[in-house]
Specification:
With 327 residues, the protein is α+β, with helices and mostly antiparallel strands. Helix content is 17%, strand content 47%. The longest helix has 33 residues, at 38-70. The model is unreliable at 1-44 (pLDDT under 50). This is SgcJ/EcaC family oxidoreductase.
């Protein structure tokens, strides 16, 4: 049976593509670890559920800090820090301890009343059950007319103390504008030829830099019983407004879609949506984890087609295609 694309294409390692709602069970090959009993699956889901709750708590802490900052409340803003917290600004000046941080905030509010802060998180990585690392940008907007906002990069280490997440170490760095090509170097490991084979299907992908160097372009082809059944093109670029990687995909069946990438260590989470050739809307969250120079895992969850939920796809492994003999 020919698989019907969920939306803009079916391909192992499609990096932002859905897979079909009706493909044969073996059209994508799950790694042995993906074969789970209900009890094993429940245990595997528990850490992810707890981590999601922790991520939500950290986001709420950042929101509380921004709210206190924008109100000029140094006491409340400092309360989001651990007692022994350290802050290093973009000039390398160090402020140690919650009390000293409170005093510095109060002095800043007095010098520039009405200044507001906006926090944009770009990546959050858990270092263990009670520690997390966050990267992002802060934008300070002065209250005075004609004054320009100032944006800095930041890195924050969060720790859990007595059941509460707090800022433990903060480092600010001056923003350096990078070209789209420089940004995409994070994904340069995708370049080359990749393959996933099962008893029923072979999915091959090839990734290379666009001629202008500002996009990565991927071509994918799915074959069943040696015959091509679906192909498509994906383009990956940098969105300077959302400050995230963005993907656009077009498949040979007439479907298309787009999605945004968020990094979590060696794992990329891609939330995407698109339109099938029959006009139905679809959405999906794909999770890609780099396992080494020549291996990666791929999983598809939270899938919808029209108004209905679609079963997810268990994690499976794709490998870099070895060079042909004599080359």
């Amino acid at each position: 049976m020919r698989p019907v694309p969920l939306w803009f294409g079916v391909a192992a390692f499609a990096m932002g593509q859905g897979v079909t709602a009706q493909e044969p069970a073996k059209a994508v090959q799950a790694a042995p670890a993906a074969v789970r009993t209900p009890a094993v699956a429940a245990r595997a889901a528990a850490p992810a559920t707890a981590q999601a709750a922790d991520a939500k708590a950290i986001a709420a802490l950042a929101e509380a800090y921004a709210k206190a900052f924008n109100a000029g409340d140094a006491e409340a803003a400092a309360a989001t820090y651990a007692e022994d917290a350290l802050v290093v600004d973009e000039d390398g000046d160090r402020t140690e301890g919650r009390a000293a941080i409170r005093d510095r905030l109060a002095a800043g509010f007095a010098d520039a009343p009405g200044t507001t802060i906006a926090i944009a998180t770009e990546a959050l990585r858990f270092l263990g059950p009670d520690a997390a690392l966050e990267e992002g940008r802060t934008t300070l907007t002065p209250a005075g007319a004609g004054e320009s906002p100032e944006t800095t990069n930041f890195t924050v280490v969060y720790v859990r103390r007595d059941g509460r997440w707090l800022q433990s170490a903060v480092r600010d760095e001056a923003t350096h504008d990078l070209t789209p090509h420089d940004r995409l170097k994070e994904l340069e490991w995708l370049t080359g030829d990749w393959v996933n084979e099962s008893q029923d299907a072979v999915v091959a992908t090839s990734c290379k830099w666009a001629d202008d160097g500002n996009f990565l372009v991927r071509e994918f082809t799915m074959k069943m019983q040696g015959r091509p059944v679906l192909s498509g093109t994906q383009r990956i670029g940098w969105d300077p407004i959302r400050r995230q990687f963005k993907t656009w995909v077009f498949d040979s069946a007439g479907g298309f879609g787009e999605g945004y990438w968020t990094r979590d260590g060696d794992r990329w989470v891609i939330k995407a949506e698109g339109v099938r050739q029959d006009g139905r809307h679809a959405s999906v969250t794909n999770i890609i984890t780099r396992l080494g120079k020549d291996r990666a895992s791929w999983q598809s969850v939270d899938r919808t087609l029209g108004d209905a939920a679609v079963p997810g796809v268990d994690e499976f492994t794709i490998v870099r295609k070895p060079p042909e003999a004599g080359k």
